[in-house]
Amino acid sequence: METVTHSSPFDSFLDRMRNPASLDLVRSIKSFIVSFSYTASNPETDGKRIQEFFQTMEDAIMDHPLWASSSDDETDNALEGLEKYVMTKLHSRTFASTPEDVKIDAEISEKISLLQTFLRPQHLDIPSALQNEAAWLVCLAMLKHCMWILMGLVIFSPAHLLSG
Question: Does the keyword ATP-binding apply (predicted)?
Answer without folding.
Answer: no
